[in-house]
Write a structure and sequence with these properties.
Blueprint: H1 16-26, E1 29-34, H2 41-51, E2 57-62, E3 68-72, H3 75-82, E4 87-89, E5 92-98, E6 112-120, H4 129-135, E7 140-144, H5 146-150, E8 156-164, E9 172-176, E10 182-189, H6 225-231
Antiparallel strand pairs: 1-3, 1-5, 2-3, 4-5, 6-8, 6-10, 7-8, 9-10
Helix pairs in contact: 2-6
Length: about 260
C-alpha cells in the first residue's frame, strides 16, 4: 500500500461512514471463477442458481475477467457454501473464496486442482481401503462418487483426486497385490489441468497460443447456450459411510 505524504498534495479523505453501506451490502458474499474456462454469464448464472438452490441468492454479479460474485441472504448461508466442498462445471473446478474488504477480485494462481479419474476393470477386492492407496499413485485422494461408494456401478471406480499443475498424468498405475503379484490398472481422466508454457495461463497447451495471446480453446464450444448449460454437470460432495469414511477432503490450494 502506498503511504500518504501529507505535504505532497491535498487529497480527498473518505471516512468509515462513507464505505459502511457497501461493506454491509457485500459482507455475505463469495466470489469465484472456473479454472480453465470462461463460460457465458447466462449459463454460469443458471448453474449457480441450481447448485445453491436451497439458499437464498440475493445477487449474482459478473466481472469481465471471468470472476463472479454471489451475495447470500445470511452469513450462515455464506459459510455453508464455503464449507460444502468441491463443485465442478463441465468437469472443470470452480474455486470459491469469501469476499472481504480490499480483496482483489481476480483469478488467483492455483497450484493444484481436483479432478475425476476412472479406474476401469478394477477387481472388486480393491474397492475398499485399497482404492485410497491406489488413487494416491495418481494424486492426493479426495473422495469417491456415490455409485463407487455404494458399489452400484462396477464397470469402473470413479475417484476425485487433487492433481498438481505440471505433474505427469500416468495412463496406468502398477502395484503389488496381497499375493505379491504385479497388477496394472488403466486410468482415464475426465479433465486434466494444463498450463501453457508460453502465456503461462491455465486451460490450454502451448500449441494453442498464437502470437503470445491465449486462445479461447480452453472453453468447450457449444452450438447453443442451452447445450452448454446441459453439459454443466454438478458434482456433489459424497461423504462415504463405508471403508472410505476415514479420508479427508482436501481444499484446493492457491497463492
Amino acid at each position: 500500500m502506498q503511504l500518504f505524504d501529507e505535504d505532497s498534495v491535498d487529497l480527498l479523505q473518505l471516512s468509515d461512514e462513507d464505505v459502511q453501506d457497501e461493506l454491509e451490502y457485500w459482507q455475505n458474499a463469495v466470489f469465484g471463477f472456473i479454472v480453465g474456462a470462461n463460460p457465458p454469464w447466462q449459463v454460469l448464472e443458471k448453474f449457480l442458481q441450481r447448485i445453491w438452490s436451497k439458499y437464498t441468492l440475493d445477487k449474482i454479479s459478473f466481472l469481465p475477467n471471468g470472476v463472479f460474485l454471489v451475495r447470500f441472504q445470511t452469513q450462515e448461508m455464506k459459510q455453508a457454501v464455503l464449507g460444502s466442498g468441491h463443485f465442478l462445471f463441465d468437469n472443470k473446478p470452480m474455486i470459491i473464496r469469501p469476499w472481504f474488504p480490499d480483496v482483489e477480485l481476480a483469478k488467483e494462481e492455483v497450484k493444484s486442482v481436483p479432478a475425476w479419474i476412472r479406474m476401469h476393470k478394477l477387481p472388486l477386492k480393491f474397492w475398499g481401503k485399497s482404492l485410497l492407496k491406489i488413487s494416491n499413485l495418481v494424486g492426493n485422494y479426495v473422495k469417491v462418487d456415490e455409485a463407487t461408494e455404494k458399489r452400484t456401478r462396477l464397470g469402473f471406480a470413479r475417484v476425485m483426486v487433487e492433481l498438481k499443475l505440471g505433474q505427469n498424468f500416468p495412463k496406468s498405475v502398477k502395484f503389488l497385490d496381497e499375493k505379491q503379484e504385479l497388477v496394472e490398472i488403466h486410468i482415464d481422466y475426465e479433465w486434466k489441468p494444463s498450463v501453457c508454457t508460453k502465456c503461462k495461463l491455465l486451460g490450454h497447451e502451448r500449441e494453442r497460443s498464437k502470437k503470445g495471446k491465449p486462445q479461447k480453446n480452453n472453453v468447450v464450444r457449444r452450438n447453443s447456450v442451452a447445450r452448454e448449460e446441459s453439459l454443466a454437470a454438478v458434482t456433489k460432495v459424497i461423504t462415504p459411510k463405508s471403508s472410505f469414511s476415514n479420508s479427508t477432503c482436501i481444499e484446493t490450494s492457491g497463492t
